[in-house]
Design goal:
Layout (H helix, E strand, L loop, with lengths): L5 H4 L35 E5 L2 H4 L7 H6 L16 H15 L3 E5 L2 H4 L8 H16 L3 E5 L7 H5 L8 H16 L5 E6 L3 H4 L13 H15 L13 H22 L5 E6 L2 E4 L6 H8 L1 H7 L5 E4 L3 E4 L23 H13 L3 E5 L7 H20 L4 E7 L18 E4 L4 E4 L1 H12 L3
Parallel strand pairs: 1-2, 1-10, 2-3, 3-4, 4-5, 5-7, 6-8, 7-9, 9-10
Antiparallel strand pairs: 11-12
Length: 445
């Protein structure tokens, strides 16, 4: 992958062709002759992902910050300084590149960039330009998410995605951010996992006798409106799922056009949350689940330059998603240890959309780093099988670079390949980072 000229070279990603972005892995030592049976396609992107709210710290103008501070609210603990990535981004990016990766996926935070409606902060835009410059200096491709769950508090108080004005408000932000940053972005994403409001409807909360997570969030929404004295408040997680989806779909289309109006050749897509859905032996509603959760987004993806897919496990789909099979190994998130989900998801997504696929999140929450290595080993073996069968996958980005703030669950789940001591902000590289970084450097299993 190139440094200064990466954006220019990446400028057009032809759809439905084998030409990928022009990246090569920066490496100080010559590569050993590749064993073709183990190697990945040329210019394959290997990266790590983060999201602003989870690592930057002190996103005080966001809706989540307000929600985190509601007494007995839905968050286990507030994000606080998180990983202080806002200040430590340069060392984190250098570390990521040193490990062998050639790509960094991160989000820019709308609530910092537009902290009050119509008031854009050049200082914050310049901050993200410095982050992008650091990536460029380390020859990293940049995958930039414009909206990763969090939003400005003012926008949430106006009903978030449910407000008919939301798509225009979002497009205005997209235009402004792209004007300031677009020349440094290799791949833009309008939304991280916009299908989550629908997916939540299929998850059953353990011990709630069929109660879905969506219902839990509805209760949290009512509480938040009272606590914040904001009767129209809505958030990404806590809102009317149908209205939110309509708003997000319209905002995606307008946001994408706004980005393209500034830089027509900017590759734009989004990141879809997907489970490797498998039918229950009886009464499976798998087709309904797929139509309800992914359907409209897979349609939208057909008009994009790429689709990012994000997967962590499988779901056995009955009337709803069934609990993991008895005796299955579980991750810290209570999910089944099932790394083969990557293979299932990329095959399905490619078949449905026919656009280039990038795995933009995959990983495991565990304190046992040896299990993380095993997870990657099996996930990548599956990914390789799919690629060998002709599935057009062009990158693998793991979640996550750092142990970070895992939304409602606080800091407990450990997804990182790098540990963070939150008292000192010291980073400690785990063996899984070296394992995955070596694969990235060699572009080969
Ligand atoms: C989200 C991340 C999250 C990860 C692990 C994805 O749903 O995009 O923000 O931390 O999963 O739960």
């Amino acid at each position: 992958m190139q440094g200064a000229s990466a954006a220019a070279l990446l400028s057009v990603i032809p759809r439905k062709s084998n030409a990928g972005p022009t990246h090569r892995v920066a490496s100080s030592s010559p590569r050993p002759a590749a064993d073709k049976s183990k190697s990945f396609p040329e210019k394959f992107l290997w990266g790590c992902a983060t999201a602003g709210a989870q690592v930057e710290g002190n996103n005080t103008t966001s809706d989540l910050w307000a929600l985190e501070h509601i007494p007995d609210g839905m968050f286990k603990e507030p994000s606080g300084d998180a990983c202080d990535h806002y200040h430590l981004y340069a060392q984190d990016i250098a570390m990521l590149a040193d490990l062998g990766f050639n790509t960094y996926r991160f989000s820019i935070e709308w609530s910092r960039i537009e902290p009050e409606e119509g008031q854009f902060s050049s200082a914050e835009l310049n901050h993200y330009r410095r982050v992008l410059t650091a990536c460029r200096e380390h020859h990293l491709a940049t995958l930039v998410t414009y909206s990763h769950f969090a939003m400005p508090l003012w926008f949430a108080k106006k009903g978030a995605w449910q407000n008919p004005a939301a798509p225009d408000r979002y497009a205005r932000y997209c235009e402004r951010a792209t004007k300031h940053l677009g020349d440094m972005i290799d791949f833009a994403s309008t939304f991280n996992e916009p299908d989550v409001p629908q997916l939540l409807n299929w998850f059953t909360l353990p011990g709630t006798e069929g109660g879905s997570m969506a219902q839990m969030f509805q209760q949290a929404l009512l509480k938040a409106r009272t606590a914040l004295n904001a009767p129209d408040f809505a958030s990404f997680f806590a809102a009317d799922p149908q209205k939110t989806r309509d708003g997000l779909l319209a905002a995606h289309a307008k946001g994408k056009s706004a980005m393209k109006s500034v830089r027509p050749n900017l590759p734009v897509g989004f990141n879809l949350a997907m489970s490797d859905d498998q039918p229950a032996p009886a009464d499976s509603h798998l087709a309904d689940k797929r139509a309800e959760t992914y359907g409209p987004w897979l349609e939208a993806a057909k008009k994009c330059d790429y689709l990012g897919v994000q997967t962590y496990s499988r779901s056995i789909v009955g009337k709803k998603d069934l609990p993991p099979p008895k005796g299955a190994e579980l991750t810290q998130m209570g999910m089944e240890f099932y790394p083969e989900c990557v293979e299932g998801v990329v095959r399905y997504a490619a078949q449905e959309t026919d656009v280039p696929i990038y795995v933009t999140e995959n990983g495991i929450a565990t304190n046992d780093d040896a299990r993380r290595i095993e997870y990657y080993r099996r996930a990548l073996a599956g990914l390789k099988r799919a690629i060998d069968d002709g599935v057009d996958v062009r990158g693998y980005v793991t979640w996550s670079l750092l142990d970070n703030w895992e939304w409602m669950f606080g800091f407990e789940p450990k997804f990182g390949i790098v540990a963070v001591d939150r008292a000192t902000q010291k980073r400690t590289i785990k063996p899984s980072a070296a394992y995955l970084g070596d694969i990235a450097r060699r572009n080969s299993l």
